[in-house]
Automatic annotation (TrEMBL), chains A, B:
Segments traversing the membrane: 121-139
A molecular function (GO) term: oxidoreductase activity, acting on the CH-CH group of donors, NAD or NADP as acceptor
Name this protein carries in UniProt: NADP-dependent oxidoreductase
Pfam families xref list: ADH_N_2, ADH_zinc_N
Signal peptide stretch: none
Source organism: Micromonospora costi
Domain Enoyl reductase (ER): 20-332
Gene3D superfamilies the UniProt entry points to: Medium-chain alcohol dehydrogenases, catalytic domain, NAD(P)-binding Rossmann-like Domain
Lineage: Bacteria, Bacillati, Actinomycetota, Actinomycetes, Micromonosporales
Keywords linked to the UniProt accession: Membrane, Oxidoreductase, Transmembrane, Transmembrane helix
Domain of life according to the entry: Bacteria
Length: 334, 334
């Protein structure tokens, strides 16, 4: 090891509404020594994800809140540099949950070796990892999309959304519509094979969705909430399903926006709205990896990455993600 | 036949917000003559139900809107008085869909003979009919209640709600909580075997529900929407389910009230919200009738009826239903 210093990002203060740079603090610590059963990992890539915004609040949720004045955490890929654990050797690349720091002390049970010859290592933080499984399980298991159906996905140029649209087409959707936040993203969606795409800044989502899917939709994969969800409820056909993956539109609202005023339509249309977390769908992982790896090999799935360099820029990468500045998966290279 | 005059209730004007007597008109017509395949039925009881409010608006929905200046319709039980149709004879009691009139001309295919020796005829408009099946299918098929769970039902002293609570107990719910709109109704719920009941006028629903189910709930059977649904979403435990049967709180709102502001909780708790119509659950009818008839025979299910006399009072019966003046099933005796 050449560096004796580890740099990590701490939560300095909880945000009210939109987080800012002041909510984070770059802290230098000594590189720790691995104890029994521990690996010292030099992180190479870390993930920033929308769900992390929720963990910055001090509320009970599915994941515990980040602690103040302690490093944040999240998905990361790094190289084992020390640690005497059976089955691991220096140089091994491992996937684990202690991002937001240059060096991580990882319990061996929490580390999963990844093979850089099968796919670029960043794929394990995205298309072949939790992100891909989120898209796959949400679309096929939660929303139970059937061939011939029309699918709408919001935040469609994001890491999850862009995969939802592509998986839908590969699994036989008749029509796939995506919404995104810029003309460049809309253009990218068309290149990815979406049948229609619109910029949600261009007018009421309800109108844009109606133009893009005049016959209505059967499935809505919700990453946004708010007016997107309301528009989808109006557009859904009888027996339509909504997989609710995220509601990024309201993560930063000090007062949550009104939920869809047309919610009563769920009765007459017999709609199902279902929230989900990818962690409940581990039973699909093997099937997912097999199918997705095949699609990647055949060049039938494309994925975008937006990479920011340096731990010191991780907060800005996260803030940029919340502002929608990423195309595809947002990563920090360490 | 002694009466040559038929009286029926027409929709005189579409309501804006709460309907009033002015939206209805009592009209006298000649008693019609049955044509081939038709039965002339002298109605004995007609049903008024909350869903009829939706049909008074001129909006596309699961059921077509009532036409202006024409009789309303809905569930009714009557006696065949004329008509030459195989399988039917004068004096037969039939269940059909042409209520809101004293005499109905019913296509034989739309009439179902009922046996008054098996159950009081009004039961076929309630506990053994669509009302009972709505409670049964919503609780067991839509919300998939499991033994040992905690169930909350709103409008619990109504026709559907009171059955939901009793079926839940009979099928092994650990705890059943109901909300209603008066102290007398709350008392009735306790007599029906509800473990806890509260008057929603007594304070925020969220607080009352928390007191009644401090450990949270697993299933919410929604007849009300609005603040009841919001409170339920807060109280639901992970993997909880909501069967959305009605949203009576908003049927009469000119502007729909805000939907639950805490809707984003569906993600972390992995909640499922599902709207349903009883018409989709006909496959359960035989099982339901068998099980419910058994419970009735054994005296394990009780049901209330609020009966108003005379076709001329049908509008007031319906308006009283919307105001919650009924205990159990609201019926009009003709």
């Amino acid at each position: 090891m050449t560096a004796a210093v580890n740099r990590e990002i701490h939560l300095a203060a909880r945000p009210h509404g939109w987080p800012t740079a002041e909510n984070f603090r770059l802290v230098e610590t000594a590189v720790p020594e691995p104890g029994p059963g521990q690996l010292l990992v030099r992180n190479r890539y870390m993930s920033v994800d929308p769900y992390m915004r929720g963990r910055m609040d001090d509320v009970k949720s599915y994941a515990p809140p980040f602690a103040l004045d302690a490093p944040l955490d999240g998905g990361a890929i790094g190289e084992v540099v020390a640690g005497d654990v059976d089955g691991f050797a220096p140089g091994d690349l491992v996937l684990h949950g202690l991002g937001w720091r240059e060096y991580a002390l990882v319990g061996a049970a929490s580390a999963r070796k990844v093979n850089p010859d099968l796919a670029p290592v960043t794929a394990y933080l995205g298309v072949l990892g939790m992100i891909g499984l989120t898209a796959y399980a949400g679309l096929l298991d939660v929303a139970r999309m059937q061939p011939g159906e029309t699918v709408f996905v919001s935040a469609a140029a994001g890491a999850v959304g862009s995969l939802v649209g592509q998986i839908a087409k590969l699994r036989g959707a008749a029509r796939v519509v995506g919404s995104a936040g810029s003309p460049a993203k809309v253009e990218r969606l068309r290149a990815l094979g979406f049948d229609a795409a619109f910029d949600y800044h261009d007018g009421p989502v309800r109108d844009s969705l109606k133009a893009a899917a005049p016959e209505g939709i059967d499935v809505y994969f919700d990453n946004v909430g708010g007016d997107h969800l309301e528009a989808a409820i109006s557009a859904l056909r009888p027996h339509g399903r909504v997989a609710i993956c995220g509601m990024i539109a309201q993560y930063n609202a000090a007062t949550p926006p009104a939920a869809p005023r047309n919610l009563a339509l769920v009765i007459g249309k017999r709609l199902t709205l279902r929230g989900f977390l990818v962690g409940d769908h581990g039973d699909l992982r093997d099937e997912f990896v097999r199918e997705m790896a095949g699609w990647l090999r055949e060049g039938r799935v494309a994925y975008d990455e937006t990479v920011v360099d340096g731990i010191e820029n991780a907060p800005e990468a996260f803030l940029g993600l919340l502002r929608g500045e990423n195309l595809g998966k947002m990563l920090v290279r360490l």
